[in-house]
Every structure is written in C-alpha cells, then in structure tokens.
C-alpha cells in the first residue's frame, strides 16, 4: 500500500473574513461551520486515511499554540515544523518534502491547505488515494474541483490527455478570470484549482533543484539544522532565509512537465470570504444563516454572526452582518471580497483592530487590550496554572497570583520594567497588566 504522509500548511490570516479572522486568531482556527475549525476538519479527514503515516503540520511560531491545542482537542499528535519566517508557500512545501524524504524517500506527500472546507470526506479520501497512486508514478498531482458556478475568485486548470484512470495531464494553469472568462472556462470543462497536491517527496525536491535551487537547498538545510523538541521541529532561521520567497505554483507547478490533475467530485470551498461561508453554512427556508446571540425578522439571504453583543436585523436582504466584541462588519453579500480594502484602510490608519482582537486565547493565556493611545497600549494577561510565556519588553504589574521567572518570583503587587523578554511560568491563576510603550 502507498505510504502517505499528510502535510497540512497552516499559515495565512484570512483577511477577507475580518473581523472574526485576524492575524492573532486566523480563520483556520475559527469554528465557522460547526463544532470543528477547518484546521481540525482537515486533520480528521486524513488521520484515518488508508496508508497514512506521520501527520505533519507546517506553521509559524505564533500559530503553534493553536495547532497544539486544537490537535489535542481531537486526539491528534502531529509533527509540527515551525517556519522562522513566512516566505510564501514554496519554502514551506519544500521543508515538508525534505522532512518526509528523510523519513521515507518514496513516501507520497498529501499536501493540504488548513483553511478549506470539504463537505464530502469520503469522496475526498477516494480522490486522495487516486492522486497518491498517480504520484507513485512520478507525477505531481493537483486536485481539480468541478465548478458549481463561474467563480472569479479561483484559479482554473484546463485538463489535457488522460494519463490513467481519473488522472489527466495539466494542459494549462490559468489565473483568476473575470466573469465572462469564468463562464467560458466552465463551459469548456475547466476545473477549479484547489491548491492541494500529492507527490513523492523526492520528486518535488528534484523539481525544485531544477527550477528554484535556493528553495531546495535552503529548506533541506533548515530541516537538517532544525532544533527538535518533542513533536516540534523548529527550522533553522539562517538556512531557511536562503530560500527564495515564491509560491509553489510559480516555483514548480507552472514549469514542470510532471503536472497532472485528478478531477474531484467532492464539494469544496476555500472559505475565502463571507459569501463563501454563507454558501457552505446551513440555511433556513429564507436563505438565512445565523450564529450566536442574533435575531432576524422579515429578512432573506442574510448571514448574521455574533461573538459578542446581541444583533437584531429587520427587513433586510442579502447582507453579511458579523459582530465581534470590538468591531462590526455590514456589507452586501456581493461585496464581501472588498473586505480586504476595508482592512487595508484600517492598517494604514494604524488601527490595531485590523490585526488584533480585543482578546485572544492561546497556550493557556488570555490577552485582552484594555486601553490604547498614541503613546502606549495596555493589555491584561490572564494565565492558567502552568501556562508559560515570554513576558515582552514593557512595564508590567502583577495584579494577582504568581509567576516564576529566571530572575525570581513575581507576586501580586510586584512591578517591573523589562528591557528584554523574560520567560515565566504561572504557579497559579495569575493576572498581569502590561504596558507597551510606543
């Protein structure tokens, strides 16, 4: 049986799903469509896949606590490769391929995005096995999804001649089209490019040596010189920095003569914007999808979500209404792709709510912004017993509890100005006020 190594790429910020998704808590870790996040759903789809071996997740340092806690929540213990910096998808894919090649040179990597929604897990598993079998023949196989509409938000693939049962040559990759072109693509049998792949680790690395040698060399060296801590491997920063910053599509897929496509019958969405959430979510007879403390009266085709205040809407149609504790988004369903422009404007104005929630939870610590001025930002950190963190540069006061650090214990009432990060562990539930001076 084919030895399959599922690898999940867990990066990105999901800007178009603001205000729920922000860099401090991105969309792949949000439970937008049910009891599990899309990251957890991806793990569950592959953990019992026939032939599956070691599960691998590639992510950044800031997201590692989410990966650990959400994987543990569903009984998974993946190997985690931590990128020292984001350098687009090719170095991340290459690092995973180099890691798997070291474990099993003939192993097939099933490379999956963490933020996609697939409504038919069994159909996905069947497609994955077809793609893995083709990958054993030296092909780099991408999953092409049959379009349900002439979408303009996806890239497309034109299938060519058949190679084997269910697998075709890639005749062309094409960029996101306008509506008229998308309609022509759908009529001509083009497929959506899902951005998920299957390939032998050694084949992918050989192609990178051909086309982007700095990516192959830098990623392989970053794995070899990485620091292992249990199930976590931190890639070497210097070596990883030698890898060119480029996507896997540009680095390999649009240049290789090994590209193949496996048309997939499963229902798929990249959950890229709020209209995609509405499409994938359960809806009532009037086309409404509601989540949280909300109410709709005489309304149709509305997505309404609240993770904070009660939200009521009366007599509205085709709207997206998303409320968080510190921000509310309202837009027409057809305008949800423009959310990025709104967020870009907030960033340009220096508004912290573009990138941070008023409160975030990770690694047993809740961090809540309580005040912000041009001179400083004040946060309240609440530690669970045993939680660890690096206290940041700033002025801090322990309000309750106790922290153990390299320079001794900090207890209720203690104040300290830190000029360098200090690692601490909470010996009991602890609250700390931290002022970050600008």
Can you walk through the features of this model?
The structure is a single chain. With 438 residues, the protein is α/β, with parallel strands linked by helices. The chain has three domains: 4-269, Spore Coat Polysaccharide Biosynthesis Protein SpsA, Chain A (Alpha-Beta Complex), CATH 3.90.550.10; 274-340, no CATH class; 363-437, Jelly Rolls. It has helices spanning 38-46, 64-73, 89-103, 121-135, 179-187, 201-211, 213-224, 237-240, 248-253, 274-280, 339-348, and strands at residues 4-10, 56-60, 79-83, 108-113, 117-118, 140-145, 156-164, 167-174, 191-200, 227-229, 232-234, 259-264, 268-269, 289-291, 294-297, 303-306, 311-314, 319-323, 328-332, 359-362, 365-372, 376-383, 388-391, 394-400, 402-405, 408-411, 415-418, 422-426, 430-437. The strands form six sheets. A six-stranded antiparallel beta sheet has the order 20-21-22-29-24-27. Strands 6-9-7-8-12 form a five-stranded mixed barrel. A four-stranded mixed beta sheet has the order 14-16-18-19, covered by helices on one side. A hairpin with a 4-residue loop joins strand 18 and strand 19 (328-332). The mean pLDDT is 93.
Number of helices: 11
Chain-averaged pLDDT: 93
pLDDT under 50 segments (min length 5)?
A: none
Strand order of the largest sheet: 20-21-22-29-24-27
- Could you name the CATH homologous superfamily of the largest domain? Spore Coat Polysaccharide Biosynthesis Protein SpsA, Chain A
Helix content: 10-25%
CATH 2nd-level architecture of the largest domain = Alpha-Beta Complex
**Class by alpha and beta content:** alpha/beta
**Anisotropy-based shape:** globular
Largest sheet: 6 strands, antiparallel
* Percent in strands: 25-35%
